[in-house]
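Structure ticket #2291
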Amino acid sequence: MQDEHSLIAAFVKRSKRDRYREILSDTRLRHKFTNQLAHFTDFDLKYRLPIPSNKLFVDNISRELQKRQSRKLVFAISEAPALDQKELPLVEALKQIVGRGMATVLSCIPGRLAFVETEDERFILERHDPLDTCEYVRFVIGRKDEESHVEQGIFQAAAQALEWQHITGSDAVELNELREWFSKNLERPTSFARDKLCRASVGSRRVTRSTSHASGRWTTFSSAMVSTSRKSGRTKPVTRSTKTNGN
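Resolution: structure written out below.
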């Protein structure tokens, strides 16, 4: 799971990350991601390294990846069920996917190096600025999620309120605009240690990085959710923080 989250955080377009994280975290939805790999277009182009046409073979690709310090064992995300979520030796994995018509991504160094084989092409993804470990603030409401059994995140609650039409009309339009702004401007962690959750203010580096603009947006967003919570008889949002990997 860590390889998958790191891959999404490092190489996928920001606007698509949350959606793909959710899909990959749910075994029932996973196929929606792997089925797209044959013609996947959501990798960030700035991390893409084309492979010269005379080096598009297993031995050459292996050397290119090893030059970049690839692990000996790589993790596969694949449309082939026999390969998906398997850890394999690098050369063996390449032999099973290169030219075989099975779209696959090999995570060679989590969040830093990957190899991609699609139906149309093959290329390397490389990132030199590994994501940092930092402190995030997680906003929750006083209600547990039915699946995870932990307090539901406020952004998840907002999406649910819109889906169930607890918020409609101009309020829904405004809330959608605010959700889109936060999605584009604030990173979301892939995981956190729930046993370390504690009450905190909005003073996290990640949350306040956009300074007063983020603060104003948050105030509006929080007010909308508090209003909705009261109307539906729910507990108003509380703030919790945890140090977590920034993938």
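Closing remark: The chain has a mean pLDDT of 77.
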